[in-house]
Amino acid sequence: MNAQRPLGYWLKLVDSLIDEQFAATLEEHGVTRRQWQVLNLLEQRPATEAQLNAGLSPFFASEDEPQTLSEHLAELVESGWVTTNDAEYSITDRGHISLLKLSELVEKIRTQFGQDLDGSEYDAVVQTLEKMARNLGWAPEEEQE
């Protein structure tokens, strides 16, 4: 049978393949994808664990990574990439330098999975998925408050 596969199939497959690429690439550098995301959020501004958790909660589904933000933060603090002061986390200079290097690797992954798409195709996919999410009840955090 040569029937078109449903949207859910492609969403799960692409998500799984992206996770695999990120895991393989970032693992070589001693960091998980979630930790990379934490560093990105902290690069913007210091944040509490609750603020970080709110920003990352959709991503805590990978079975091969710690399942709580606390575990990720503890590893980042131990590595010297993040500090904590009065329950607020900040990226360190060492973390900033590491994030710059990791971001180059991540950009290569993004280039790879979008290599046969022109910018308008990629943008259309993202916009379409956002519309579908909104149709299913999702609202960005700033709209939920």
SSE inventory with pairings:
Layout: H1 7-27, H2 33-44, E1 47-48, H3 49-56, H4 69-79, E2 82-85, E3 88-91, H5 93-113, H6 119-135, H7 141-144
Antiparallel strand pairs: 1-3, 2-3
Helix pairs in contact: 1-5, 2-5
Model description:
InterPro entries: WH-like_DNA-bd_sf (IPR036388), WH_DNA-bd_sf (IPR036390). This is MarR family transcriptional regulator. The protein has a single domain (about 5-140), classed as Winged helix-like DNA-binding domain superfamily/Winged helix DNA-binding domain (Arc Repressor Mutant, subunit A, Orthogonal Bundle), CATH 1.10.10. It is globular. Helix 2 crosses helix 5 (about 95-115). Strands 1-3-2 form a 3-stranded antiparallel sheet. The mean pLDDT is about 85. Strand 2 and strand 3 form a beta hairpin. The protein is mostly helical. It has helices at about 5-25, 35-45, 50-55, 70-80, 95-115, 120-135, 140-145, and strands at about 45-50, 80-85, 90. The chain contains 7 helices and 3 strands, in the order ααβααββααα. It is about 65% helix and about 5% strand.
What keyword list fits this structure?
mainly alpha; single chain; 145 residues; 65% helix; 7 helices; Arc Repressor Mutant, subunit A; 3 strands
Concise synopsis of the structure shown:
The protein is 65% helix and 7% strand. The chain is mostly helical. The chain starts with 6 loop residues before the first helix and ends with a helix.
Q: How many helices does DSSP assign? A: 7
- Segments where pLDDT lies below 50 for 5+ residues? none
Gyration radius, in Å: 17 Å
The helix/strand order is: HHEHHEEHHH
Output the CATH class name: Mainly Alpha
Protein name: MarR family transcriptional regulator
InterPro entries: WH-like_DNA-bd_sf, WH_DNA-bd_sf
